[in-house]
Amino acid sequence: MKKTLEEFKAFALRGNVVDMAVGIIIGGAFGKIVSSLVSDILMPVLGLLIGGIHFNDLKFVIRSAVVESGKVVSPEVSLNYGNFIQVTIDFVIIAFSIFVLIKIISKLSFKKAEEEKAAPPPPPPADVQLLTEIRDILKEKKTADPASLAGRQLLLPGNRHFYTDCRIPSSCGNGPAPS
Fold first, then answer.
1. What value does the mean pLDDT take over residues 112-118?
2. Which of 51, 95, 128, 174 could cross-link with 124 by S-S, CB 3.0 to 4.6 Å?
3. 179 vs 47, 152, 158, 161, 163, CA distance in Å?
4. Across residues 2-18, what is the average pLDDT?
5. Residue 160 confidence (pLDDT)
6. How far apart are CA 47 and CA 53, in angstroms?
7. What is the mean pLDDT of residues 158-163?
């Protein structure tokens, strides 16, 4: 039982799960705000513009309600297309708002990625630089006249020098500096 609780805790506290939960909660609250915007602000104005019609009242009655002695015996059967129109407008506004939000986030993350690309790469470590110098000297040694490499030195770790004195065949790039 304890192991199961530990696994659940590790799962529930993972970054992706927590981020998703926050997103769902904020998304639900955002949906309520947009629904209020549509039903309380946009739809009354739109209804007024098209002749004072309330979209929630728009419906197609299939069968009228049967009322006997003030009691409803059978309720009205209708297709409430006005409510469908309102919910569709809610959806379009929510979808457009999320689209705009994602575009803004994408632009910000794209700018951040460009800034990271613009930063120069850090210099390679000292040992890589040393190996690069040795490689370059060996390339020169293959193609160049041995006398042109005479007196070249490399600084090895620990401030030790490596001489390439090719005037002396036994020491032609093979060891530390002669004393």
1. 70
2. 128
3. 100, 15, 17, 11, 11
4. 77
5. 54
6. 5
7. 53
**Under 8 Å between Cβ of 162 and 154:** yes
Axis crossing angle, helix 15-36 with helix 81-118, rounded to the nearest 10: 130
Both structure tokens of 18: 């927590």
